[in-house]
Every structure is written in C-alpha cells, then in structure tokens.
User: Fold this.
Amino acid sequence: MIDAIAIQTCSLADPKLAQHEAQALSQLHQLPLANSLKTPPKITLGWHRNTKDSSPKLALFQTNSGAVFIDFVTGKKAHRRHYGGGKNQPLVRAMGKIENRLPYVVDATAGMGGDSFVLASLGCHVLMLERSMAVSALLKDALLRGEAFLKTENSDSELHDIFARLQVIHTDSTHFLHHQTINHAHPIEVVYMDPMYPEKKKKAATKKEMKVLQTLVGPDQDSQHLLQAALQAARYRVVVKRPKNAPIIQLDNPKLVPTTQIFSPNTRYDIYVIKALHASGYLPLISNTRL
Ligand SMILES: C[S@@+](CC[C@H](N)C(=O)[O-])C[C@H]1O[C@@H](n2cnc3c(N)ncnc32)[C@H](O)[C@@H]1O
Assistant:
C-alpha cells in the first residue's frame, strides 16, 4: 500500500485558522503536514470548501485533479439513488434475497462507498469495511455530514432510513472476517468484495475517484486471502465484482469456483453460494460460527 498522504493546509481566507485546522487533522491522523516535507507528497488529505456550500468536506487532493470527497446527499450518488435502476440492477440482484427480504451485507472493500450506498438505498443493511485510513476517514466524514443533513428541513424519511442502514469501520477485512463473532442483530449474511483491479494502461478516462484510489492503495494483491475469509464468514453468499473479462480470483482449491455469475456491460458479479459449495464438498465446514 502506498503511504503518501500529508495534511493539506486548507484554503481558508484566514491563514491562522487554516494552519490550526491542518494541525488538528495532522494530529488526528498522525500524518505530517504537507509543507513540512522535503518532497511534495503524491496525495494530500485536507478540508475542501466550495463557495456554494458552507460545510467543509474531508477530501483527497492529487496533483492535476480536483478534490475527491464523498457526498451521499447530493451529486452522483444521490442521482443514482433516484434514477439508478432500482432493485433490478445487477449489483442488487447479485445479493439475492432471504425469505423475501434483502440480506445484511458486509462490504469488505468499501472504497468510496458507492456500491454500499446503492445497496443501503434499496434496503440492505451494510457494514462498510475499509483498510485505507484516508479512505475510511472520507467515509466517516460523509456519514457525519449526512447525519447533520438529516437534521435539516431538506431531509426526508427515506434518507434517514438509508443512513440508519450504513456503518463504517476502519479495518482490514480479512482480519475482521477471521475474528468476527456472531452478531444476532446483524449477522454476516452476504460478503461483497470489489477489490482494486490492475488498471489497463490504455484506459485514459478513469474517473477522478478511481485515479486517487489507484495512487493511494494500488491494485489489491491479496484478494484470494480476503475471498477465503469471506467464504468462511458469510452465511449465505459471497459476491465478487470483477471487470467483465477478468479471470476469477484463484483460490488454493481450483475447484472452488463461482456457483453462478451475473453480467452487466462492463462488469461481472461472481457469486459463491455457501450452501452449494458445502453440498459439493468444495468448502469444508471448519467452524461452527456460521450455524
Ligand atoms: C475498487 S475499491 C472499491 C470501490 C467501491 N466498491 C465503491 O463503490 O466505491 C477497493 C477498495 O477496497 C479496499 N480494500 C481492499 N482490500 C481490502 C481489505 N482486505 N480490507 C479492507 N479494505 C480493502 C481498498 O483499500 C480500496 O479502497
């Protein structure tokens, strides 16, 4: 994992306040101030303010691209909530249903929270796990800003319910899933994974969000360990999002392959149904935590 973050001094009119805020962030995240480093860092973390909107947003800044922050209330994520294809979209179908309701999901690779937010908008309870300190800080900031928005008159009850279904933890998911204990209120029914896939050299039009993630965390080289842990922890299924033509994640047991797949124009969802894997004998029952 690349560790090239430092605290950006905020672009506030009052330089003293800016310095004070930057120092507070620096202490909170135990990161040096960008202007104290000899070599400029590739990515910095700081507060982004625009003129239209008074609430500052925690953001990542990369040279030659604008601020990257998460906004669950307005912008693209809100647009997708209203017009994004509803329960018929492949991501949601991939989660399956349990006795006619949507499952409790652990998003083991939360990233910028886009997929988690879609799932929560449509009714899933989602626990977002993210191992990058900076990215998980962005998620926490977005949830806090969302909760503040809920107290305003512009909020609505639907948004309230969505935020009630979302939680975030800064952790390595492989470790988390290996050490999870049964939570009867929120069992781990489905584990969802969307690991970083090596970027195609030719692909110029990568979104700003993805570019920052690529610089910050790079490709995820340990997805097979995460998948193994997910298969042991999930009660019903594990769903892995892959680029359409990417190979499946290779496991030690080559016979342990997806039970089924769902395709969308650029993406494939590899679905591992736990019951079917047990029935075929390819997934040994090694603990009693699931039953
Ligand atoms: C491709 S991004 C996920 C994008 C996300 N689905 C979205 O909609 O924004 C992958 C993210 O998973 C995180 N990640 C990868 N392996 C992880 C692990 N074992 N534990 C926690 N986070 C992990 C990476 O740090 C990265 O932020």
Q: What stands out?
A: The mean pLDDT is 87. The longest strand covers residues 237-243. The radius of gyration is 20 Å. The pocket of S-adenosylmethionine is lined by residues 108-109, 111-115, 129-132, 135, 172-174, 194-196, 213, 217, 220, 226 (CB under 6 Å).
